[in-house]
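User: Structure please.
Assistant: Input sequence and predicted structure:
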Amino acid sequence: MNHLTPMNRPTFTAGGIAALVLAASYIIGFVMWGAVLGEPPDTLSGKVAFVSDNLNILTLTTILIYHIPGVALVLLVLGLRQHLGSTESVLANWSAVLGFIWAGIVLASGMIYVVGAHAIADLATSEASNAATSWHTVTVISDALGGGSELVGALWVLGASVIAHRSGKLPTTLTFLGYFIAMAGTLTVLPQLSVFQSVFGLAQIPWFGWIGMVLLREGQERT
């Protein structure tokens, strides 16, 4: 019989809730940037003005789609690793480390964006030209960490999917969805294939949501 220690039961529940939070964060991101904030102007000066005019909503949005998901990712990595039941294998450890690195990258990207946005908004009132150049630097660094290339996240999803495929601990359709997400995320390393950034994000919504339900059900069944 498979028994869970008292510490393992909350791991499934926390991991499941974290996965649902991550799914919600992608939805919030697409809604905020697609319907509320819209695309910023193409010019650097226009982008600085956009940041200054929308500073508070940009800060809140970034917290919701970077800071909170970064923390949630740590819980999900732990919960999914426990669920797949291969915590001692090299592949499981490799995958978990990548998941933790991805969580750190997501958090760092959000922190850089928020701190940079507030600094640029202050600078724009006195040195508009310098603000434009500085904002370009901030966005390049932030995008390079989170969103511009999804390689680290893709490799974590790939590792988890391979383990799930071998163990049969996740539904087959969910496992192959993970393979598709991993492929899309890997292709984002090529700037000319930036369309796969949206593919990666959209596909993660059902992936995170489904995993969340699996982990929550696991926690309920073994209490």
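The chain has one domain: 8-221.
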